[in-house]
Amino acid sequence: MRRCGVRAAQDLVAAVQRQASHTRRRGRSHPGTGPGREVVAQAASARRQITVRDVGTATVFDEAPRQAILQTGSRAAHSVPLITVKGHVLGMVSSHHGHPLHGFSRLQLAALQQTGTDVGRWLSWHWDTVVLDALERLHVQAVGACR
Question: In which band, very low, low, confident or very high, does the pLDDT at 10 lie, cut at 50, 70 and 90?
Fold first, then answer.
């Protein structure tokens, strides 16, 4: 039997798995950072789209975040949750607009919702199949190379 770093390979695979798991959990538990995270968090927890028609007058923001957002040139925002088949929010997609919004049509909102659902389902499928299969293959190769 050839001696090699089986333990090192196993430690590497375990570390990759922990990091991947942490990254996946983090996407759910920390919906956003920086100014505007309140809206993203609200959309994520409600599992629905949120439109901020005018950042300058929206009551969802405290004054400091409002000013930070306005300084970037954003006057309006829209957030769409990325939802799995089981209803878990994997992430959010937000658009920022340089002018106040009057809203979206029902057709536009339906298309955005469908996109969020499709992307969420694909991300979930990708994680549950491709990523986990790749980690398993890496583990098998590392252990097999040392036998």
Answer: low
In angstroms, the CA 67 to CA 26 distance is 27
Distance CA(90)–CA(142), nearest Å, equals: 30
- Describe the crossing of helices 132-144 and 6-29 by its angle, rounded to 10 degrees: 170
| 95, β-bridge pairs | 78
Q: What strands, in cross-sheet order, belong to the sheet with 50-52?
A: 50-52, 76-83, 89-97
Instruction: Record the tokens describing residue 22, joined without a space.
Output: 């942490």
| pLDDT, tens digit (0-9, with 9 covering 90-100), for 78-89 | 989 999 999 889
Kindly indicate the confidence band of residue 76, based on its pLDDT and cuts at 50, 70 and 90: very high
DSSP state of 18: H
Please give the CATH topology (third level) of the domain spanning 6-144: Beta-Lactamase (3.30.450)
Q: Which two tokens stand for residue 121?
A: 């389902």
